[in-house]
């Protein structure tokens, strides 16, 4: 059995090699992305794994994988919206994911964003850069224990985030289409989305991106958010309409936004941008320049524990499929 690992990052190499050694299975490393141009490299392999935010939507990729005898793309991610699941199915390719690799990694970044923005750290640092260390009224902050935190999507990551905020003393409320039985004692459910938005000082998004959740926060319902509220998105960029968020920040209705993900993030995620012109037609330069915004380029998952779990589970998925015929963590 042989596996080809696409788009392997420097920080993943040790985890890939350790898994290969421990399982006595050949895993070859390909540093490039899985694209129309690179798909033929998969010839002769039993499965491929990749980790990419660049869409894999070209039919040619799935057709050639089938031609090359590859039965599975094992994504080293939780979300699989970068793949075309129907096309994959058409060519008999299973798309598998890593549903859980470290909810704490994402939850901790959501809390970090919220605390930094609540305590006005960006404003303090900007003032400090001009030599201004004064206790100005505009940077006095609330304490998290006097805040209501609204968690939208109370699954694995949302509930972990809720527990961290509760541990800090916040009152936590939630909204979800399904109530999580493990949420009892951690959060109370709001009656609906509007109810959650209107009661929360901090709103944190932890949903998958689907047709139903596209622009879940938009110009019509963002107005229900509390005056001075903070919005955090570590889910998927398109869960919110960024133009609506910017309008509410500009008007002063919202205090701040913590954005680990953005709808246009493929422009910059995991890249060093030397040519700023590339970002010119996007909201990114504006977001980067603001003290009321924390922009992290999809870093929430980026912890040692999460990376190790992502690599090993994705390779386990391929091993299991090949050895038992069972497709675990299938998404199509
Ligand atoms: P999960 O499946 O455990 O929880 C998602 C929750 O969203 C579920 O409880 C579900 O009922 C709820 N939901 C789905 N559609 C809904 C709707 N229309 N309205 C209200 N609730 C709805 O997923 P998990 O593991 O908590 O992950 C959540 C999301 O976080 C992932 O889908 C992924 O997009 C994102 N993520 C982001 C990462 C990052 O690095 N920034 C890393 C990992 C995940």
From TrEMBL:
- Pfam families named among the record's database cross-references: 2-Hacid_dh, 2-Hacid_dh_C
Q: Which InterPro entries match?
A: D-isomer_2_OHA_DH_cat_dom (IPR006139), D-isomer_DH_CS (IPR029753), D-isomer_DH_CS1 (IPR029752), D-isomer_DH_NAD-bd (IPR006140), D-LDH-like (IPR058205), NAD(P)-bd_dom_sf (IPR036291)
According to the UniProt entry, its GO molecular function terms are: D-lactate dehydrogenase (NAD+) activity; NAD binding
Annotated D-isomer specific 2-hydroxyacid dehydrogenase NAD-binding domain residues:
112-300
Report the residue ranges that make up the D-isomer specific 2-hydroxyacid dehydrogenase catalytic domain in this protein: 4-331
Please indicate if the UniProt record lists Membrane as a keyword.
no
Assigned protein family? Belongs to the D-isomer specific 2-hydroxyacid dehydrogenase family.
Among PANTHER family, the record links this protein to:
2-HYDROXYACID DEHYDROGENASE HOMOLOG 1-RELATED
What name is this protein filed under? Lactate dehydrogenase
Origin organism is: Peptostreptococcus russellii
């Amino acid at each position: 059995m042989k596996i080809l690992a696409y788009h392997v990052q420097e920080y993943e190499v040790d985890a890939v090699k350790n898994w290969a050694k421990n399982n006595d299975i050949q895993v070859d490393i390909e540093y490039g992305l899985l694209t129309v141009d690179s798909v033929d490299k998969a010839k002769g392999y039993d499965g491929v794994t990749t980790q990419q935010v660049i869409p894999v939507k070209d039919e040619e990729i799935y057709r050639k994988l089938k031609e090359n005898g590859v039965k599975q793309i094992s994504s080293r991610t939780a979300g699989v919206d970068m793949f075309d699941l129907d096309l994959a199915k058409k060519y008999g390719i299973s798309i598998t994911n890593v549903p859980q690799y470290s909810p704490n990694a994402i939850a901790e970044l959501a809390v970090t964003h919220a605390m930094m923005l609540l305590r006005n750290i960006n404003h303090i640092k900007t003032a400090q850069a001009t030599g201004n260390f004064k206790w100005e009224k505009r940077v006095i902050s609330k304490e998290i224990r006097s805040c209501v935190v609204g968690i939208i999507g109370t699954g694995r990551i949302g509930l972990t985030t809720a527990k961290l905020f509760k541990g800090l003393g916040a009152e936590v409320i939630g909204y979800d289409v399904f109530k999580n039985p493990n949420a009892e004692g951690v959060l109370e459910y709001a009656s609906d989305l509007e109810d959650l938005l209107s009661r929360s000082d901090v709103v944190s998004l932890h949903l998958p991106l689907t047709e139903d959740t596209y622009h879940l926060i938009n110009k019509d319902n963002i107005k229900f958010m509390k005056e001075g509220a903070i919005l955090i998105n570590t889910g998927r960029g398109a869960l919110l309409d960024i133009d609506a968020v910017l309008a509410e920040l500009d008007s002063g209705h919202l205090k701040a936004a913590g954005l680990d993900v953005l709808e246009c993030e493929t422009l910059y995620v995991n890249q060093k941008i030397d040519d700023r012109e590339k970002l010119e037609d996007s909201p990114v330069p504006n977001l980067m320049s603001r003290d009321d915004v924390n922009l992290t380029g999809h870093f929430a998952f980026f912890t040692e524990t999460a990376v190790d779990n992502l690599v090993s589970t994705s390779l386990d998925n391929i091993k299991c499929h090949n050895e038992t015929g069972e497709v675990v963590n299938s998404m199509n």
